[in-house]
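hey so i finally got around to running the thing on that chain from the lab meeting. sorry it took forever, my laptop kept dying and i had to restart like 3 times. anyway pasting the input first so we r on the same page abt which one it is
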Amino acid sequence: MANKDSQLLFKVSSIVKDKKARHIVQDKENYKVSIVLGIYEVYLSYKNTSPETVKTELRKLCYLWTFAKLRNIPLEQRLSQGNPLSTADIRAFSFWLSELTFVRNVTRKHLDVKTYNAILTSCSNMMVWFASQYLKIEGDVSNRYLTLAQIESKIQSDFKHQKKKDKKSLQAPDLTEEEIQKIENYLKPENNNAPQDIALRNYIMWRLVIEFGLRISEILALRLEDCPNRKQNYIKIVRIEERGQEYYDPRTPYEPRPKTLSRDLGFIFSDSPLKKLLNEYITKHRFKTVEKFGQKKRVPIIINPSFLILNHKTRSGSPLSRAAAQDIAKDIKKNTGVDFNWHLGRHAFFNRAYAAIANSKDYGARRMDLVYWGGWADQNSLEIYTNRAKKQQAQKALTFWQNDNSWEALE
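ok and heres what got predicted. didnt touch it at all, straight out
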């Protein structure tokens, strides 16, 4: 099965330097490294703390580099001098991008509108940056400022005119109550055939998703000090850059990084089993097996930093990887018949949380509470939940109308 990247002539390769993931863009044919994108990667790494964000941006730019190679456009030379593509070239690139196809599940597909527009946005931002850094402009500072402003506006306008309108109103996907019950029953440790430590860990991950709406990256980044204890009756979500300069994760360069803002989250359900489960998991199952004097012994895991969610299959005390977490989601999907992924659990939580406040008298304040709870920077991130709530309200209204009322003018 071919993915989108298989159609590209360039690829992003990752390396680890000073305990941080860095990226280079290479020509797949001759492995030549793009100097221009190397410069841009430095800028992106300085601007963005997440290596995955940088990698995603570079992947999107690989589409433009592929197009330029196919059309023999000296893109590297032009950008190094601060010269953006012409309007005609941008239009040609947009057409090529819209016609690009890849195979998924034996079906040939085009890029979806959201991905197509995101690629154009990334290319626009990149060209604006190179123009601002390398374009030589005669005259004083004010003339340079005005000229750059005009060039920036022209680049953004050229790309904006090529974007497609997404007629679909984005709505958050959801889990039905029946599907949630299936997953709950399957993952309960007493019902699961996995070893006790693994079954308990997986169930804790599920409850953190469905009770708190956490991202899987947030769960995998949790440390022991973030969990409820005698001093705190809540769960702490902490961004990596707030952990301090000495922060280290053995999963680098693929360490999970919370994308959301740091926050403290109390328990919504008074009868939540999570506190008890977390205590049981930490005190009884965070052990590793070592051999000493020819005998195997269980010893507490005291690795610093002490991540909560561990890979118990290796018995080494290493934290669970993102790939292993996705394997758990696949196992849930296989054994429940529910088309499950971890982020779908987050959506299920916020769909219900938003529905609970939609008709509240102090809606504005409750909405801001949800923004904080989700770790978002602004209220726009709630739009997909608003859209779903509106759809469900409309469905209820139509059902009522059809069953209990009539439209006399059309009878």
